[in-house]
Each structure stands twice: as structure tokens, then as C-alpha cells.
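Session log. Operator J.P. requested a structure for one protein chain; no other inputs attached. Running the standard single-chain path with C-alpha cell output.
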Amino acid sequence: MILEADSVMVRYRTARAVKNTPDFEALSGVSFSVTSGELVAVVGPNGSGKTTLLRTLLGLEPPSAGRVLLNGLEIGSRSRRDLAECIGALPQREEPAFPLTVREVLLMGRWARLGPVASVTAADEAAMAAALMRCDVSGFEHRKIETLSGGEWQRVRMARALAAMPQLLLLDEPTAALDVGHEMALFELLRQLAIEGLGVMVITHDLNLAARFADRMVLLHRGAVVAQGEPASVMQAELLSGVFEWPVTVHDVAGSLQVVASRKRD
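Structure written below.
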């Protein structure tokens, strides 16, 4: 087991000016794990706590209760460099503060191994080249990131996460801005990375891709886990209709469960 969330709670204080208002509970007793060689998809409606969960797993948001363990040690006890060696992360939003080339972005993924003054080695170059190829952005090294399309930037960020050669990938909406071909290519890549032994956790709104590729799904609703397990145990029409507050049906399409949202009739 690489990563374990054990009864994690995250509570935000409300504004002091609002009297007699309880603190907002963004996560409530969330427990699940990610092991080597496993692809876990975290799904749920907007505001269900998915991004807060990612921040907590990365040690950026300390839990109000419970704990997060990385290779058996509490996440808060690990240095940022140690975490960067173990985890390749892709946040949902990222606005670079400086004009950078794609190569410079990928070097940021190698910083934990390079250190502050070390020279770039052949191993670093090989890791970056392999990451660029796997994310279909080979030849982009000298392009300025401001010249990239939204989908190209997303694929470069994914390459940066892979360039770190981590044990674990934590990804928040990695298919945002990608066309259908690159969506499929990315999930095929995640599946292959899991086969190669990485632990992968992906937050996604695409239930159908999650069901098609994930070993396990974790369904969040209002900060709590309402279902988790193999896709068949989560892809239940009644459950999903209640959580997403919209009628859906679930169908077996070529051996994979797929959700279809119904039209509401007058």
C-alpha cells in the first residue's frame, strides 16, 4: 500500500462575522487506499470535496482529524522534497508566474532528484524525453508555454508529473481541455502505468472513462464516501441518480458499464 487516507476530516472555519454558524466540513471521515499497480478513480458532483481531498493527500491541507499515510508514514512528517520524489501531481488549475519553455517545465518535475545546483544528467534527459513521448508532446521542448493550446499545456503538465519518475500519481481532472482521442490516450497511458507498477489516483468527472479503466472507484458526496469498490458496485443507476441529482441509466457497452443521463420530460 502506497497511500492511505484513514478517517480524514477537513473542516473550514466560517467567517467570524457570521455568528452561530457551524464550521464547514469539506471532508467527513474519508477512508480509502491506493496500492502499487492500481488505478483508482475518485468521482462525484461539483463541491463533493474532490479537490480538497487531493490537497490533503499532498500535505497542502492538514486534516482536522484522521490521517494520511504515504508508505506508512504520516504525510505531515515528510519533507516537500521527499514528497516530490514519491508523488507526481497534476493539480486542476495552474497559472505559471513566468514565461517558461516546455523543457524548463519538465525540469521542474526533476528538481527533487536534481537538487538546487546539480547539473542535468543523461538520466534526467532520458526521463524527460520518455515523458514527452508518452504524453504525445515530443518535439515541444523549446516551445514557450504561452504558445500552447489548452490541451497541449495539459499534456505537458502530465509529462512533468511523469518526468519525476514517482511511485504514485495524483491527478485532478487530467483530461480537461483534451479532445476525445487524447482523453482515451491519457487513460490508456494511466492503465499502462498501473500495469507497470505505479499507484494512480485520478479525480475525474467522466464516470464512463472511470468505469472503463479504473480498478476501483470512490464516489464522494458532500464530503463523504458513499460508495467504493469495483466499478460495478459504484455504477448503480439509483445511487448515481441520487448523488448527482439527475436521472441516469446504466448500460453494459462492450463489457464496460456506461452512464447515460436521461432527458427530463415536461
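Operator note: The CA atoms of residues 171 and 240 lie 22 Å apart.
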